[in-house]
Amino acid sequence: MTRRVPQELTCTEMVRLVTEFLEDALPLEDRTRFEQHLVYCKGCAAYVRQMRKTVEASSGLKDTGLSAEAEDELLRAFKGFCK
Amino acid sequence: MDEPRVGAASAEDALVVDALRAGDEKAFLAVVQSLNPPMLRIASVYVSSRGVAEEVVQEAWLGVLKGLSRFEGRSSLRRWIFGILTNCAKSRGVREARSTPFSEMGSQDDEDEPAVDPSRFLPADHPRWPGHWSAPPTAWAEEQVLNKESLTVVEAAIARLPVNQREVITLRDVLGWSSEEVCESLAISEGNQRVLLHRARSKVRAVLEKHFAEGEAR
Lengths: 83, 218
Known about the structure:
The complex is a heterodimer of chains A (83) and B (218). Chain A is mainly α and 83 residues long. In chain A, α1 packs parallel to α3 and α2 packs across α3. Chain A has helices spanning 11-22, 28-40, 42-59, 68-82. Chain A has one domain (1-61). With 218 residues, chain B is mainly α. Chain B has two domains: 11-101, RNA polymerase sigma factor, region 2, helix turn helix motif (Rna Polymerase Sigma Factor, Chain: A); 110-217, Winged helix-like DNA-binding domain superfamily/Winged helix DNA-binding domain (Arc Repressor Mutant, subunit A, Orthogonal Bundle), CATH 1.10.10.10. Helices cover 63% and strands 0% of the residues of chain B. Chain B has nine helices and no strands. Chain B has helices at residues 11-21, 25-46, 50-67, 77-98, 142-145, 148-159, 163-174, 179-186, 190-217. Chains A and B meet through α1, α3 and α4 of A and α2, α3, α6, α7 and α9 of B.
């Protein structure tokens, strides 16, 4: 994606570019502007932290497997296939 | 979570496949137990309930057993199994959609709504701070983000996303796949993947922010 980042990044642009920043997909020049903006803009620094936390929360979702009965059923199917 | 592999089947995959073909029940159970949790998560992207997702996973395993003799190792075993699963889940989702009133289905549109309410920024013609926050976000307390209640909020927010955004955020953020793997698995470009991920994460963040604000107001 090529999007021009003007000289001084605004907060609206930061919000639009945050995923490209986190994904390390910004050209170096734009990345530098982004990082400079974060140094003095508390709101955007908080926003970036919130995005990181959001990713962390998604990765914290718990997954469970199938029930023991369903697993038994699969095992029976497996035995059937192997006969 | 062990790292999913990119590319062809590994030597380890070959051993597992040999064991499965030889009817090794222990090997089968080990594969089933390690892959079922992510398989259920992926199936849930496309179907309406946990119960249906479980059926889809079982159906996928039967497909795996049927196809095992034809597995050539051009992709990793894991990728091959996820491919079968995704096909089962998508066709089940399509069948479900046909019998579900439109109003009950998640949004299918890939609408480009703003990540943050525009009213939280100063106007572009503001003399001193154009396009800067008028209502900036505030820091979240570390511990509140990962508590059970917040995770429930996150899970519900993901469930409400359009399916293409839900696919990407589930594989990337929930299951921790690399962007390369997600692009390959969903057959989308890196740029497209990033756009979908951006929309998905932005919406989930907004939902969490609202949730915490309501918590403070209580």
